[in-house]
Inverse folding.
């Protein structure tokens, strides 16, 4: 079964480019487009998509207000913000509105596709730059886990998995981690899956925040 997607953006060129990409994915079905938040709310009701790619700065009704209404009216729909704004004044309200993730428009196409698939499954999705910024606020001086409370919870990870997790806390994507470690991206994905399984977590951001908290405890 394909993932039904509603694309919301007020720029026609952006709509055209993203639509083309989405239609190339064998497991995606682009069920509609909207040009502002009001249309997004109406089409969410009409088309009942699985995932909505939501821009923020739009006429008539912005993406945050639209996401808030959709979360109330159609809570099963996953709203994934796709915008150019990377400042906290946009990120926090967007996530508080009920959006399951926040991606920037400079994201690599493959990363966007994976974010959509993961959001569909109910996992929180953050652009690497956004994750890095939020983690920096949580623990700006965090260091790798050494001795201290919580270390035993990390000992189930292999040395390589710990290395991958530490790179995740820096907001690095699988592609970036693969390059840094000189391994295949597929290998990194395997490590990430193993890390999430061992820590009983559903997404990499949750695991990164958990690791950062343990890093602070070890200081």
């Amino acid at each position: 079964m394909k993932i039904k997607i509603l694309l919301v953006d007020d720029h026609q060129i952006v709509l055209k480019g993203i639509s083309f990409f989405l239609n190339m994915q064998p497991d995606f079905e682009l069920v509609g487009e909207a040009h502002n938040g009001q249309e997004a709310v109406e089409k969410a009701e009409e088309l009942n998509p699985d995932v909505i790619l939501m821009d923020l700065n739009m006429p008539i009704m912005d993406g945050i207000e639209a996401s808030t209404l959709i979360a109330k009216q159609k809570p099963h729909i996953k709203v994934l913000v796709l915008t150019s704004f990377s400042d906290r004044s946009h990120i926090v309200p967007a996530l508080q509105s009920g959006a399951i993730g926040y991606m920037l428009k400079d994201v690599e196409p493959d990363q966007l596709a994976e974010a959509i698939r993961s959001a569909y499954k109910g996992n929180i999705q953050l652009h690497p730059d956004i994750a890095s910024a939020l983690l920096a606020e949580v623990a700006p001086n965090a260091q790798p886990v050494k001795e201290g409370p919580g270390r035993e919870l990390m000992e189930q990870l292999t040395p390589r998995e710990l290395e991958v997790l530490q790179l995740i806390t820096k907001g690095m994507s699988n592609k970036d981690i693969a390059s840094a470690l000189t391994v295949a991206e597929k290998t990194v994905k395997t490590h990430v899956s193993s890390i999430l399984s061992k820590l009983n977590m559903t997404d990499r951001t949750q695991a990164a925040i958990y690791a950062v908290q343990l890093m602070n405890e070890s200081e």
About this structure: Confidence is low (pLDDT under 50) at residues 138-150. The chain has two domains: 3-126, 136-217. The radius of gyration is 18 Å.
